[in-house]
Amino acid sequence: MAGRYDPLNRTAVRGGRTPVPETASAPHPGAGSGALVREWESGGVDLGLTLGPLRRGPGDPTFRVTPDGSVWRTSRTPEGPATLRVALRPGTGTAVAEAWGPGARWMLDRLPALLGSDDDPAAFVPRHRLVLASHRRRPGLRLTRTGLVLESLIPTVLEQKVTADEAYRAWRRLVSSYGEPAPGPQNLPPGLYVMPDARTWALIPSWDWHKAGVDIKRSATIVRCARVANRLEEAAAMELPQAAARLEAVPGIGPWTSAETLQRSNGAADAVTTGDLHLPGIIGWALAGNRAADDAEMLELLAPYAGQRHRAARLVLLAGHAPPRRAPRMRRTDIGRL
Fold first, then answer.
1. What is the pLDDT of residue 325?
2. Is the dihedral of CA 222, 190, 71, 183 positive or negative?
3. SS3 222
4. Residues 212, 214, 220, 222: what is their CA dihedral angle, to the nearest 10 degrees?
5. What pLDDT is attached to residue 321?
6. Sign of the dihedral defined by the CA atoms of residues 125, 128, 131, 136, in that order
7. What spatial distance separates the first Cα and last Cα of the chain, rounded to whole Å?
8. What angle separates helix 295-302 from helix 309-319, to the nearest 10 degrees?
9. Are 307 and 270 in contact (CB under 8 A)?
10. What Rg, from alpha-carbon coordinates, does the chain have?
11. Mean per-residue pLDDT pooled into runs of 10, the chain (338 residues)
12. Residues 116, 142: contact at Cβ < 8 Å?
């Protein structure tokens, strides 16, 4: 529960805090909906914390949380588009999942990895009081692994050097315009779409990038990624250094973008984000009282968590302890209006 010592603010939301209501009653998967169904004993996973980093803003057309405690998300899998609904059976740690579309079987086969089965939270040893407190409050935190690179890479590129609101708006506009309606039952949450395939991303005309508020540098990077999408998807099966090198071989992809992508696609527990405008100051303030910390000091503070630096950074963000603001927020712009 958010409170004085655990505030639900923008910092915590960046850490992946996504509220998911408790399931009121046992779900009835697949009843008359033509869904493929799978149940998996999750060991007490927290759906909101684990899947929250996959949501790109509250209006993300590929991600929804519904009042019955279900998380809905869409993906373009190697076998085609798919919609996944997952909820926890009340009073148990059992995840109940349904999937629709040509990629439904692919999604269900990878449900455990999506819910953190490849993660090893026992390997994490807190070294700071704040990190220890945040870790204790979140025993259900797992690091998700989607196994899909492009679906995390493209929205991450959209977030380069702009405000989160601008990036989220661009993602909504582009997916809603060029994606396809999500496959699923009649009670599918409204406005749910599957992101475009790589070829469609590469063919978006320059004026539609502009209408979506995306400058030529970011749009050109996404087009380059789309043209080598198959090679980039191979990074999902690589170790972190090799995967980062594969992504950063594309002009326009640097350490910030590769880390933010591999945290999601590969479940990389040590993929610490460098080159970020705010993260070093947040980590420095939370762990050493230094709001002016740079990447070098952040990495020094996170050094005791080698192998788990991303998890440590997330726990700091989830605690919501950000330094007091001294300057106005970055000005919101929309080049699509020009």
1. 74
2. negative
3. helix
4. -70
5. 85
6. positive
7. 43
8. 100
9. yes
10. 19
11. 60 89 64 84 95 96 96 98 96 94 98 97 96 96 98 98 95 98 95 98 98 97 98 98 98 98 98 96 96 97 98 96 72 68
12. yes
pLDDT of residue 57: 94
CB atoms within 10 A of CB 126: 18
**Between the CA atoms of 248, 249, 250 and 251, what dihedral angle is there, to the nearest 10 degrees?**
90
pLDDT score for 130: 96
Structure tokens at 19: 């509220």
Contact by Cβ (8 Å): 80, 103: yes
> Beta-carbon neighbour count of residue 280 at 10 Å?
23
pLDDT value at residue 27: 58
Three-state DSSP at 93 gives coil
What integer pLDDT is reported at residue 13 of this predicted model? Answer: 87
Residues written for the chain: 338
pTM of the model: 0.93
C-alpha distances in angstroms, 93 versus 42, 45, 117?
5, 7, 13
CA 126 to chain centre: 23
> Token pair for residue 29?
């998967």
Number of other CB atoms surrounding residue 213 within 10 Å: 21
Element (H, E) at 18: none
Residue 159 carries which side chain, given as an amino acid letter? E
Sequence-ordered strand ranges (E) for the chain: 36-41, 63-65, 71-77, 80-88, 94-100, 180-181, 193-194
User: What is the amino acid identity at position 192?
Assistant: L
Element (H, E) at 273: none
Largest Cα–Cα distance in the chain? 57
Q: How far apart are CA 65 and CA 45, in angstroms?
A: 16
Q: For residue 66, give the amino acid letter.
A: T
| Buried-exposed string 74-106: b where 16+ CB fall within 10 A, e elsewhere | bbbbeeebbbbbbbbbeeeebbbbbbbbebbeb
Beta-carbon contacts of 122 under 8 Å, excluding residues fewer than 6 positions away, are: none
Please, what is the angle between helix 164-178 and helix 150-158, to 10°?
A: 130
**Model pLDDT for residues 164-184, shown as the tens digit of each residue:** 999 999 999 999 999 999 999
